[in-house]
Automatic annotation (TrEMBL):
Designated name of the protein: Methyltransferase
Family that this chain belongs to: Belongs to the N(4)/N(6)-methyltransferase family.
Pfam families: N6_N4_Mtase (PF01555)
A GO molecular-function annotation: N-methyltransferase activity
EC number per UniProt: 2.1.1.-
Lineage: Bacteria, Pseudomonadati, Bacteroidota, Flavobacteriia, Flavobacteriales
GO biological process terms held by the UniProt record: tRNA methylation
Enzyme class: transferase
Keywords: Methyltransferase, Transferase
Xref: InterPro entries: DNA_methylase_N4/N6, RM_Methyltransferase, SAM-dependent_MTases_sf
Amino acid sequence: MYNTLDIAQEYGIEERALKSYLIENKIPLVQDSGINEKYFQAVLSFIENTDNRIEQKLNKAHETFKYNSEQNKISIYQDDAISFLEKLPSNSVDLIVTDPAYSGMNNKLQLGKGRIVGNYSEKGKEKGKWFGEFEDSEENYTKFLTECKRVLKKSTGHIYIMFDSYSLLSLGSIVRQYFDVKNLITWDKVNIGMGHYFRRRHEYIIFATNGNTRKIKNRKFPDVWRFKRIHNSEYPTQKPVEVFQAMIHASAEEGFTICDPFLGSGSSAIAAIKNNCNFIGCDISDKSLDISKSRISEYLKNNKDILQKNSMGVDDNIFWE
Ligand SMILES: C[S@@+](CC[C@H](N)C(=O)[O-])C[C@H]1O[C@@H](n2cnc3c(N)ncnc32)[C@H](O)[C@@H]1O
């Protein structure tokens, strides 16, 4: 037996609206608030179609940008990734695409005293690091994945998580405890980067599903993606919009809700808008929110991406022909 108040709180809907739906559909209530398990599927489809439930549940979070049009809704918040995900209703997001700020990689790069990637003291505020880090301990990562799993739609949800080589080796296997890992994608950045040994030219992306039922949209897509890296970006670690577009082309339909809890410069949001999807995201840093807000507003107003003027694709026909 389920309770209407518990369902309303868990899924971010109004109890009143749920009760009206039950009455309209002649679903009997036991002692005014109990729902028999056999009706749960019907209740879930009502929840899925309830507009604004994410907004309702997030009304206490610190929203910094919101846009609502007929095609899409875009909302970004300033928050820690885990605390933000905890505020989202269960079973509410179609697709997570994200690129966390792993602390391991930052620490590793710091060993080079900044020589490898430039002058840290100029780039960020905290202890000379580029940006606030996400503690990539097993315990913290487990919390993060638990929340990703909860908010992602069951059976149809897809998730893409980016990894550098260090974090892939330490955290990648944990993803399997939560999701069905389908691919380890290599993002080939075409041009080599910094490094004391072999010069870095790639990152990894784990693609996984939340249950097994929904496939990607096109079986022609390869698991090596060639998009040029962005040099001298205004926001450190800004990724090409095309990397996120490839994920969205493979895994989203128009109108899907896409979530990125490590927003950075907002490349994933721009990719979502280009594909007529809804977007919800957060970042902990002031700089990220400043930059992504103006980038998203400008794109919505003038269709112009102020941080990435040119396409970074080299064989982009595969993804968007
Ligand atoms: C690798 S960057 C993301 C870059 C982004 N994909 C882009 O294209 O610009 C990681 C981001 O995570 C943010 N971050 C670090 N710790 C965080 C936390 N605990 N919660 C949310 N965001 C965090 C950083 O401020 C940084 O903007």
